[in-house]
Amino acid sequence: MSRSGSHSHRVRWWCLIVAVVAVWVQQVEGVWPLPQQLHQSADRDCLSPQRFSFTYGRDSAAQTGCSVLDAAFKRYFSIIFPDFTTLSENVLQYMWSEPQPFVVSVSVKTRGCDGYPDEDSDESYTLSVSEGQAVLRSVSVWGALRGLESLSQLVYQDDYGTYFINKTEIVDFPRFAFRGLLLDTSRHYLPLYAILKTLDAMAYSKLNVFHWHIVDDPSFPYQSRTFPDLSNKGAFHPFTHIYTQSDVIRVIEHARMRGIRVVPEFDSPGHTQSWGKGQPGLLTPCYKGSVPSGSFGPVDPTVDTTYKFMASLLKEVKFVFPDSYVHLGGDEVSFACWQSNPNVRKFMEKMGFGKDFTKLESFYMESIMNMTAALNKTSIVWQDVFDYHERPRSKYVVEVWKQGCYLCKMRRVTKAGLKVILAAPFYLDLPIPTHSWARYYNIPQDTVLEIWKGAKYQTELSRMTQAGHRVLLSAPWYINHISYGQDWRNSYAVQPQNFSGTDEQKKLVIGGEVAMWGEYVDATNLSPRLWPRACAAAERLWSNEEKTLNADLAFPRLKEFRCELLRRGIQAEPLFVGHCRHEYDGL
């Protein structure tokens, strides 16, 4: 017998011996987020990185040269075999020479390798793992990416360092098309590496929209080509704390290669103090009695120069950010400065607004939304715009962000016929325990006004959808709020479709997003505050509602996924007492 044949037989015998002796060996708890259908058997294949390969199926519309999948094959090889170059000699003597080959065949029906993911992207896939092969099929490259992530989570090691994968059948697709994560880069500047690392973790969790709250009152880090003084004078530092055009392009491309959309937010007329530093005349002068006080309030909605500026800025945004959505904000506008300004009061009288400053804000927001519509962009606005009696056209989306009865808010929005995005229960920047993730679970089927606040945001859901708006919910997912314990369970328990409304209303809820606001978050604590808490919302937005009702059943999978995030370089905080297998070297 040849030496190579002898080695090949020895590898097969070694795999068999390991399988028999280590019958107790850990298998994967499952995939996170949970696939729609997953069936596994105890039969498993022994894998070797030297004999493991990705290939395109013969019937695949995408072949070698597909940028998205070519890069994904390399990326997931390194994820599946992270210690490929550092395998111990004890393992190498058995695994180095001609083990059983294992081929992952990937076939997609439509090529789409050079485009960007959008709201209509098909992320469905099927995955069949059998002896010596895995067959992954999808309609699009974006579905293939989701399937590759699931495949990577099926591979595990025993204590001897041997890789295994069990025979598995998966049929999978997302419950919601919009599964977002908001990062605030104004209150604290986040270095580029922190944003890119967050995008990686989003892809691992199958989140697909990066809501980039790029500017706000404290700083204007976006370096505009049209208005360079906005960052020159409005950023924390004009050279070090900015996002250049090349930085933005890098973020968008990094996201694209992982099937993630980038939706920028330029929030106005409030939250614009940093804008005024580089754009004189944009903000409203506040008055004390009959004289200016020297301070400034929101954007001045009474002068033509404001609208010329906004039209130029939004035109630039259209060409820099390829996504069809742009977030226009519209929240938390203080009317005190407008009330103090005699020119604003005269404008109000001329327009017949009386003393109702909500009408003035609505006038401004209507104008800005018309601009984005003319640029063929869909607007997302915070629920405040709807709360102030504005009736936006059905082309834009409302985000429900206010805490409380977010389902009430969603009911109101969907009743109005608008799509909804749910964010209210997913604000992760607030201090609450990791065990509460179960609250983030039941998101409606098609989520976009953004509902972010309200003691009863369920009422908002009903009210806004009844008006025909698409709605996003963020109110229960403000994960910048943290507290001691397992607060991920709170997120996991969210039931955003549980509001009074018709089936058609509930279809207007297009998804949700977790929000990480930056008052107390920078690059030092971003990842552990986000992960694995954001994963609870990720599963709620992806997985079947009926199969994911029990947080206790989900806990072992989330615990293992948290360890997987650590193994991949994501600093995810612990869920409870315990350890991760990669923390020691085994033999």
TrEMBL record:
Gene Ontology cellular component list: lysosome; membrane
Keywords: Disulfide bond, Glycoprotein, Glycosidase, Hydrolase, Lipid metabolism, Lysosome, Signal, Zymogen
Reaction catalysis annotation: N-acetyl-beta-D-galactosaminyl-(1->4)-beta-D-3-sulfogalactosyl-(1->4)-beta-D-glucosyl-(1<->1')-ceramide + H2O = a beta-D-3-sulfogalactosyl-(1->4)-beta-D-glucosyl-(1<->1')-ceramide + N-acetyl-beta-D-galactosamine; a ganglioside GM2 (d18:1(4E)) + H2O = a ganglioside GM3 (d18:1(4E)) + N-acetyl-beta-D-galactosamine; beta-D-GalNAc-(1->4)-alpha-L-IdoA-(1->3)-beta-D-GalNAc-4-sulfate-(1->4)-alpha-L-IdoA-(1->3)-D-GalNAc-4-sulfate + H2O = alpha-L-IdoA-(1->3)-beta-D-GalNAc-4-sulfate-(1->4)-alpha-L-IdoA-(1->3)-D-GalNAc-4-sulfate + N-acetyl-D-galactosamine; Hydrolysis of terminal non-reducing N-acetyl-D-hexosamine residues in N-acetyl-beta-D-hexosaminides
Keyword Lipid metabolism: yes
Lineage: superkingdom: Eukaryota
Listed Gene3D superfamilies: Chitobiase/beta-hexosaminidase domain 2-like (3.30.379.10), Glycosidases (3.20.20.80)
Domain Beta-hexosaminidase eukaryotic type N-terminal stretches: 31-154
Pfam families according to UniProt: Glyco_hydro_20, Glycohydro_20b2
Record EC number: 3.2.1.52
Cystine crosslinks: C66-C113, C286-C337, C563-C580
Protein's name in the database: Beta-hexosaminidase
Native species: Cyprinus carpio carpio
